[in-house]
Amino acid sequence: MAKIKIGSKYIGNGERVYIIAEIGINHNGSYVLAKELIKGAKFAGCDAVKFQKRTPELCVPKDQWDIERETPWGRMRYIDYRHKVELNFDDFCRIDEYCKKENIVWFASCWDEESVEFIDQFDTPLFKAASASLTDLSLLNKKRETGKPLMISTGMSTIEEINSTVKAIGTEDLMIAHSTSAYPCKLEELNLKVIRTLKHIYPEVPVGYSGHETGLSPSWAAVALGAAFIERHITLDRAMWGTDQAASVEIGGFKRLVENIRDIEKALGDGLKKVYESEMSSRKKLRRV
Length: 289
Prior knowledge:
By secondary structure, this protein is an alpha/beta fold. It has one domain (3-286): Aldolase class I (TIM Barrel), CATH 3.20.20. It is 37% helix and 21% strand. Strands 3-4-7-8-9-10-11-12 form an eight-stranded parallel barrel, surrounded by seven helices.
């Protein structure tokens, strides 16, 4: 059965849609902003928040280290900027403490093996692999070695690459997120019906949706198509500095996203046709034959 336990909740068949607020690097290296985003996700009714973790020297090609760019902290080398937007050990200690206090799950997508070891210190209940890492089997196996469930995103990937990766890492405690890696993504490139395709290919795996579009309706459509989990980027302000802010959802919008997902779940029902008690008076009055 396509069902996985994360903390005290399950993701998969017959369960409520698991809703993840992707904080990513929208905190811009500030614990204060990270805390506000966690608070906003909790207010919106999310089940979890997700961060990103990188070791800049391992993730940034060396020929890009010394390229200078304008930042909110002035003009600096790209490698220095990448360090500037990373949270440190003390920040994550406080994040861990705050999330436990607020009873909301947190986890991270780790972009290199050192980052897996770093995040594993906090005993998060699962790991995420970003779309860019789908074919990095060494990194995926490093996450598998933790014994935690693994969620993989499938943006910028062919179905052959997805199948090859799943064959290599196995389907046990695996979740697959349909995604398109454009920020923000055009509606005509979301291709939400791939959710059904992946559910058909992998009936034993919870399949969800990681969206980067502007607006909320595609995420609601993903739920109607059977997504077991929804992940959207969260921000305090879409006009803030950062590459992901424009494809993110502000807190008020996230609350509406969650509330309407819960309404959609109720409206979808169980698929078994029945006559409801509320219909009986109309049936008695209007049914003639």
